[in-house]
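Hi, here's the filled form for the chain we discussed.

Project: internal
Contact: R.S.
Residues: 243
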Amino acid sequence: MAVRLQKYIADAGIASRRKAETMIAEGRVSVNGSIVTEMGVKVDPNSDHVRVDGRKVGAQKARKVVYALYKPKSCMTTLDDPQGRDTIVNYFPKTSTRLFPIGRLDYDAEGLVLLTNDGDLAQNIAHPTKHVWKEYFVKIKGKISNNQLNELKAGPVIDHKKRQPTRIRLLHHVNDKTWLSVSLQEGLKHHIKKMFGQIGYPVIKIKRFGIGNVDLKEMKPGEVRKLSDEEVFDLLELTGVSI
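And the returned structure, exactly as it came back:
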């Protein structure tokens, strides 16, 4: 059955449809030896020969699938829990694809968790050397000083070891509480609680709203959505995972 050329390229895992269209317009795609530069061309996967930048486009790869889940509070970011507590599995989409969470989010924290079927992507997003920012709204008890914020920005000391620099922006004070926007590249266990707690500011609330190029948008606790092709390909490029 014939399919549009840009869809065929996307299904083969080469690029998103949008980027495939750019490749076609740039003259980087050929069908049966002839360069194609116009949209609307269809190909038969069983008989036509497609090349991108001179390389043959082979059979469709197992697609990298990514979902965004809004993890509720009082929920474990694990596939099961010996204590019988609520886990994110209870909010997984109904799909035949085996999914697992990328990284962790504290039991009493809420917000964005990415689910995927791709181990390389999961490792690259979670590993601090890949410099993928995770963004949080954080509420602490007390009014933290600018000097203390600057020290945390330079790299907090957690468990007797200096950690990577952070991005922190003070949002507002409400009575004796402070709301902050905090961005981390590392993801130690209880990272945010430790960095503020050890300088005398107990953390009251944590909500993760962004990972790399993905954010919660208008999602509500317990909701899940499949990332668009564009979001997935942008995430792959950001993390350096082979498409």
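Let me know if anything looks off before we file it.
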